[in-house]
Amino acid sequence: MQHANPLRMATDLGMLLAFTITALFGLASASIPILAGDNAFPLAGPRAATAAVVVETDTATAAIAVEVLRPTVKEATLAAQDVMADVLAALVAQSVAESDIRASQLNVFAERFGPGGLPNGDDMRYHASNTLFITIRDLDSVDAVLDAALAAGADNIYSVDFSLSEPLPLPLNPKRAQAVVD
């Protein structure tokens, strides 16, 4: 497996691990003969079936955050907005559609501890963090989009998830469908 995109490689490795674990549990739960007198018979009763399906994802989502520290709430929120405007411009420059970018959160909290311990009343500072939730439709550009956001001033990237943009129902083999009914 040769991958130009490390995030894509991690997804493939994760799916391979999930398949391996599923296969191991399937082997471990196979029917085990029980001896009764001179006869061996398999366990009777309902059986559980497990199947793994590998699909190629086509969409990534991520939360991108900016956090600033300032002496007042107003200064902190304005500074976070200014940096987020730069991040937004960088995302659009990376061909992320504006319809795929939405504001997610604004958090403000006081810094309770400073480098010297508890701050004095006059030394209070405020953190403001602003978070965008984005959808990246070109998986080959995920690393470039995230790099651009960081270069524009983003501090954190959370929850990079890969999925299908339009999940389709998986076709069910007729024999499996009958097994479900039975």
Brief sketch in words of this structure:
The protein is an alpha+beta fold.
Can you walk me through this structure?
The protein is an alpha+beta fold and 182 residues long. The protein has 2 domains: 1-28; 59-163, Protein of unknown function (DUF541), domain 2 (Alpha-Beta Plaits, 2-Layer Sandwich). 34% of the residues lie in helices and 26% in strands. It contains 4 helices and 6 strands. It has helices spanning 6-28, 73-93, 142-151, 174-181; strands at residues 34-36, 39-41, 59-70, 101-110, 126-136, 156-163. The protein has a 4-stranded antiparallel sheet. A two-stranded antiparallel sheet has the order 1-2. Helix 2 packs antiparallel against helix 3. It starts with 5 loop residues before the first helix and ends with a helix.
List the helices and strands and how they pair.
Blueprint: H1 6-28, E1 34-36, E2 39-41, E3 59-70, H2 73-93, E4 101-110, E5 126-136, H3 142-151, E6 156-163, H4 174-181
Antiparallel strand pairs: 1-2, 3-5, 3-6, 4-5
Helix pairs in contact: 2-3
What is the highest CATH level, the class of the largest domain? Alpha Beta
Q: How many structural units, i.e. domains?
A: 2
Estimate percent helicity.
Answer: 25-40%
Structural class: alpha+beta
Tell me what portion of residues adopts beta-strand conformation. Answer: 25-35%
Roughly how many Å apart are the termini?
40 Å
Computed over alpha carbons, the radius of gyration is: 26 Å
The averaged pLDDT comes out at 77
- What is the string of helix and strand elements? HEEEHEEHEH
Instruction: Give the strand order of the largest sheet, numbering strands 1, 2, ... along the chain.
Output: 4-5-3-6
Low-confidence stretches: 24-37
**CATH-assigned fold name of the largest domain:** Alpha-Beta Plaits
Q: CATH homologous superfamily of the largest domain - what is it?
A: Protein of unknown function (DUF541), domain 2
Number of strands: 6
The gross shape turns out to be elongated
Tally of alpha and pi helices: 4
* Sheet having the most strands: 4 strands, antiparallel
Q: Tell me which CATH architecture of the largest domain applies here.
A: 2-Layer Sandwich
